[in-house]
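ok posting inputs for the fe (iii) ion job
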Amino acid sequence: MLVKGDLVHCPKLGEVVVLRNHLLRVDSRGYIDHLAHSAHPESLSILMHEDPTIIPLGSFLMPTFCDLHLHAPQFMYQGTGLHLPLMEWLNEYAFKAEESLDADHQLAESVYKRLAARLIEHGTGAVLLFGTIKTETNLILARVMQQAGIRAFVGKLSMDISSRPTYVESSADASLEAARLFCDQCIDVSSSLSTHERLVEPVITPRFVPTCSNELLAGLGALSAEKDIRIQSHMAESHDQVHHVLSERGADDMDVFAQCNLLTSRTVQAHCTFLTPPSLMRLAETGTAVAHCPLSNAYFSAEPFRLREALDAGVRVGLGTDIAGGYSVDIMNAMRQAVAGSRMREGARISGHYRADSGQEIRVLSVDWKEAFYLATKGGAEALNLAKGSGSFVVGAPFDAQHIQVFDAASGEGTGGIDFFRDPRPGGLTLEILEKWWCVGDLRNRKGTWVQGKSVDSSSFH
Ligand code: GUN
Ligand code: FE
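and the output
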């Protein structure tokens, strides 16, 4: 694959870079093997032998989005029942829905196929998934994602405590055995493929502290270390959950997870809303990444995550939709809500700024659209420890990309919901135009998606 035109990426937090009129080539295994201005001598020599696909003026390629937190079975009731506090909502909706998919694999397959189609439509190329407790249902999820061409990290839920007697594993030992089996079987889903074609991986997934005994948590920590497998869970999410853990366990989430070796550089913890700056430092020290889910936080958490402080502390952070605690599968919405929430935090401070205790430094609490763009792409890829360079365009990185059109090259008309009142063609793609797309763009702007160099198509999954 050889393409020529404008590319946009965020190599660093807050830095949106437009690579104008570049030539990008993808090798047969889906990795970028050439990237330079199209007038660069190496580009010119490539162009002597091969005609590129032209990305027209008004369009650009950018990395696909990473969604660091999504409950696949909850997609079934996305957008309903958000009136309850978290612990009641889990009992009333989440556990029941998950159990119903464990009991009906045809339904599970159709929910997961539809989810895959929606992810592709919304430009999500990599996703960290929570599934259900039954192994087979999670293998269906892994197979669907592999077939759809989405990079998916699939978590079979581990729960040996539950408010629902029919949705629980029988003991810590049984749960651990099932987690081990799932890891092996999930690896088998793609093991017959070449390494570069393998898109799915298992994730060790203690649901959250309230549903896992210390014995189970410690066993999962050991399993992850033994097999070098990723970990995901929920941490410090809501008032009712935080109080529940303190009263039942006499410790907080952070201490419980730390004691069980579940805070590692392989770990992504969702939410972390109630973590104070010293706790955020502990996340940074252990290498634990955070899935920031701003929409879900607005419903369940009562407080916004300390995003700026986490970034300043060196915590790896990406964005999550938290379907169905968040109702939108679109990471564009997560980007916007991350910025909006951070601005509310800043606005709540007198004059919007404060002097740090330690000196004259003025700290800003808000993040801007460029920072959110990074979190949705490279930040997410780094939080997931994806292959080197992932989430951006560099030689050696897998080509995971989306084609976005902001205006039509022939007419100069804005695409989808984007309106221009001056012809945008003479200036071409500017940061101002990108910001406009970031604010008001939608599905209509997305003209194609690739993962590992392969075009992925939502229509084959409807
Ligand atoms: N904590 C434990 N389980 C869940 C879940 O399914 N959704 C959310 N948002 N939080 C959780
Ligand atoms: Fe969640």
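notes: The first strand starts at residue 2 and ends at 12. Residues 71, 86, 90, 94, 207-208, 234, 237, 296, 300, 322, 325 surround guanine (ligand 1) (CB under 6 Å).
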